[in-house]
Amino acid sequence: MIQSIPTIDICTLADDIRQDEILISRFANYLEAHKNLFFPHRHSFFHLVLFTAGGGSHTIDFEKFEVNAGQIYFMVPGQVHSWNFEGFTDGYIINFSGSFIQSFLLRSGYLDNFSFLSSTNPGDGVINIPADHLPAIVTLFENIVAEVDHQRALGSDMVKLLMLQVFILLGRIQGKDESRGKQGYNHTLIRNFQKMIEQHYIDVKLPKDYAEMLYITPNHLNAVCKDVLGLAAGEVIRNRTLLEAKRLLTNPKLSISEIAFTLNFNDNSYFTKFFKKSEGITPEEFRKKTLNNKS
User: Fold this and answer.
1) Which residue ranges does the chain devote to CATH 1.10.10.60?
2) Is the CA virtual torsion 78, 168, 48, 145 positive or negative?
3) Element (DSSP H or E) covering residue 139
4) Which segments constitute the HTH araC/xylS-type domain (predicted)?
5) 6-23 pLDDT, tens per residue?
6) Distance CA 269, CA 286 (A)
7) What is the DSSP code (8-state) at residue 110?
8) What pTM did the predictor assign?
9) Three-state SS at 254
10) In whole angstroms, what is the distance from residue 255 CA to residue 263 CA?
């Protein structure tokens, strides 16, 4: 796969290369240390930021969100984002590998209960915390920072416990934890479908092929997608291809033909027709618009 956007590892951001599973910092300090991270990039790890001050915007997979105090956002590995802050911006940042938390849990799929840790939809990862819940969340982040600063015995375990408290409180705020429990089978099926798409979207384009891999009928897959996601199964597959096309188009060194070939389209014209049908503009127009916004 041609990579158009740089991928950042935790070890490249930490002063101590041994801290390859987690990085915790006050956000203003993080921004000062990594001034070059305003450009579009992706991470190989989970990434979360709680804003306590600041303005401007940030973008996750080409969807723009306004920065507000009391907002927290999550990104799963592979998503692309950039920042355009206005004025002094502060809060907390935690970068962590999936294994950091999972090593503490007996249930391997526990983190999938939280949409902000399992969904690739940018909107699921951005939460504006109600004012009456914010003090409790901020206190948890302060305790996490204190554990890192003081390096107490079993500090790593305490950080994991505090992070789980953050996740559970945010899950309650979102109000999705109960509905997920009631519809466990459907949500598990959708998660598996999305994981398969992530692995095969270049080579496998048809819902019937995914249904076969999931040991269900195409009609069943389509019905569950419409029930849980509000989209047909084919649209879910096309959206993932479209997202990768957008990511590749941010690299001006790649021709439209090269991108079409990378995404397994038969020819350039078919790719252009596919893209314009979804976005309303051609790939060339999208590229010009995106690069102008970046500059």
Assistant:
1) 183-294
2) negative
3) helix 134-150
4) 191-289
5) 677 776 666 543 455 899
6) 16
7) G
8) 0.81
9) coil
10) 13
**Among 25-39, 154-168, 177-191, 208-222, which stretch is predicted with the lowest mean pLDDT?**
177-191
* Distance from C-alpha of 4 to C-alpha of 39, rounded to nearest angstrom: 12
Compute CA distances 105 → 99, 160, 164, 192, whole Å.
Answer: 10, 10, 10, 20
Residue where the block lists tokens 């009631």: 182
Work out the pLDDT band at 295, boundaries 50, 70, 90: low
Q: Across the strands, what pairs with 84?
A: 57
Alpha-carbon gap, residue 261 to 257, rounded angstroms? 6
Token representation of residue 145: 């920072």
Q: Are 214 and 221 in contact (CB under 8 A)?
A: yes
User: Residue 152 burial by CB count (10 A; 0-12/13-18/19+): exposed, middle or buried?
Assistant: exposed
Q: Print the SS3 string covering 9-27.
A: CHHHHCCCCCCCCEEEEEH
Q: Classify 183-294 by CATH class.
A: mainly alpha
Whole-number pLDDT of residue 177: 45
For residues 19 and 11, give the distance between their C-alpha atoms in angstroms, rounded to a whole number.
Answer: 7
Highest CATH level, class, for 7-179 = mainly beta
Using alpha carbons only, give the angle 268, 274, 280 rounded to the nearest 5 degrees.
Answer: 115
Cα(6)–Cα(112) distance, rounded to whole angstroms?
26
- Cβ-in-10-Å burial (0-12, 13-18, 19+) of 169 comes to middle
Question: What's the rounded Cα separation, in Å, for the pair 214 and 266?
Answer: 27
Spatial separation of the C-alpha atoms in residues 212 and 207, rounded to whole Å: 9
Q: What angle do CA 14, 78, 177 make, to 5 degrees?
A: 100
